[in-house]
Design brief:
The protein contains eleven helices and 13 strands. The chain has helices spanning 3-15, 18-25, 29-43, 59-86, 99-103, 105-113, 129-137, 201-212, 229-234, 244-253, 285-306; strands spanning 48-51, 54-57, 90-97, 119-126, 143-147, 158-163, 168-172, 183-184, 192-196, 218-223, 239-242, 260-266, 273-278.
Length: 307
């Protein structure tokens, strides 16, 4: 028994007529009669009593009609759902990202991506970059977004698309350095500084840049993530070398304010990003579309910051 036979049987039962079923299905009457006969032979029981040109359904046919209605309805629903998935307007996306982007930029982007797609469900989790890598490697999420720090542990379990960039220098808008085109390590010598905690590669690179220039690295605030440091910078209490997306998150979430300026920093302090996807499980059309659009969005921000 196949879907074609069920559809023919369903139409005959619904119309009560082979000729009408043939017209509705755009088939010939002999083709409809043959399909019903084949179905009866496969089931090993008659579904209709033949009274002249009339087909009178037997009780077993009434049972099959109920089952066929449910099966055909499920098939129609499945076809529609698959079409929606193909058109990327239905499905789910599970995203895990490091704190900076997941605080503002990602929610803003997700909101635009799902606009007009009420059947799309999104899970957004915030974890540290090492945790992001581990969760994507374990197939717990479709897409991960983290910093580009080299990490070998689970590398074969996920694919990483890397987006390199360099840090900016965040200074209070009223600071004398805010008028410069580029800020250097000697410019910041002795200035109160904010930075990530000492075990992070960005802290180490910044500290080494000061040391190489013979400048004093006067650390006043250290935090696990960049975003909390902006409170101290906006208050005029510190400067900091920060990543581009954290800077962009601050700009957009404080639109209309001019309390912090973000300027190029020399020497360059690398801080790139990675888009991670599981190696052993293909993405859905919806998730792949999201990853591609997010990559394009981030690339545009990074390119603008480099100009």
């Amino acid at each position: 028994m196949n879907s074609h036979q069920l559809a023919v049987f369903h139409e005959v039962m619904k119309t009560g007529s082979v000729s009408q079923a043939a017209r509705n299905l755009h088939r010939t009457q002999p083709a409809i009669s043959a399909a019903i006969k084949t179905l009866e032979e496969e089931l090993g029981l008659p579904l209709f009593l033949r009274e002249g040109r009339r087909l009178v359904p037997v009780p077993e046919a009434q049972y099959l009609m109920a089952e066929a209605t449910e099966i055909l309805s499920r098939m129609e629903t499945a076809q529609q759902n698959l079409a929606n998935m193909r058109d990327r307007v239905q499905g789910s996306i599970r995203i895990v990202a490091m704190p900076g982007p997941s605080t503002y930029l990602l929610p803003e982007f997700i909101s635009r991506f799902v606009a007009g797609k009420p059947e799309v469900r999104v899970t957004l989790a915030t974890r540290s970059s090492p945790q992001v890598r581990s969760l994507v490697a374990a197939n717990s999420f479709d897409i991960g977004f983290c910093d580009m720090t080299r990490f070998r542990g689970d590398r074969k379990l996920y694919a990483a698309e890397e987006l390199p960039s360099n840090c900016l220098c965040a200074v209070p808008a009223g600071h004398p350095l805010a008028q410069q085109e580029v800020i250097t390590a000697p410019d910041l010598s002795g200035q109160p500084m904010g930075a990530l905690q000492p075990d992070h590669t960005t802290y180490q690179a910044t500290s080494q840049a000061f040391q190489a220039a013979g400048a004093e690295f006067n650390l006043r605030y250290d935090a696990q993530y960049f975003l909390p440091l902006f409170h101290f910078i906006a208050a005029g209490q510190a400067c900091a070398v920060v990543d581009v997306l954290s800077a962009e998150s601050y700009r957009r979430s404080h639109a209309g304010e001019a309390r912090i300026r973000f300027l190029p920093f020399e020497p360059k302090i690398p801080f790139g990003y990675s888009i991670l996807t599981p190696s052993e499980r293909p993405l859905s059309q919806l998730a792949a579309s999201f990853a591609s659009a997010w990559r394009e969005y981030v690339t545009e921000i990074l390119a603008a910051s480099a100009r």
